[in-house]
Amino acid sequence: MIFKQWTIGELRESTGYNQAKFAKEILHVSPKTLWLYEQDSSSLPDDLIKKYMYLFNVTYEEIFFGPKYEKIVHVQRKIAERIEMLKNIEVIEQSS
């Protein structure tokens, strides 16, 4: 099983909160600030990290820190690797 890491945007979206409401009512930051952190969470302040860990019951290791596009690229790479593995398995099964 691939270890799952969540972006802070994915965590927020899992609750159904929109960005503006979550920023203002829960985190007490501006929507623009939250938007910036959701694009690149590598500079997320410790107090917000602790809020995410508490609110979503996740560990530090389960939060993805970095530019959102890096996670997308990483996931796409893992899927491509697994597609190749699946093709190899199918070839072996067909030759048996």
TrEMBL record:
Alphabetically, the GO molecular function entries are:
DNA binding
User: Which keywords does the record carry?
Assistant: DNA-binding
Do the record's keywords include DNA-binding?
A: yes
The record, for InterPro entries, names: Cro/C1-type_HTH (IPR001387), Lambda_DNA-bd_dom_sf (IPR010982)
Task: Specify the HTH cro/C1-type domain's residue ranges.
Answer: 8-63
Q: Which domain of life is it from?
A: Bacteria
Full protein name: DNA-binding XRE family transcriptional regulator
The organism is: Lederbergia wuyishanensis
Q: Which SUPFAM superfamilies did the record assign? A: lambda repressor-like DNA-binding domains
Extract the CDD domains matched here: HTH_XRE (cd00093)
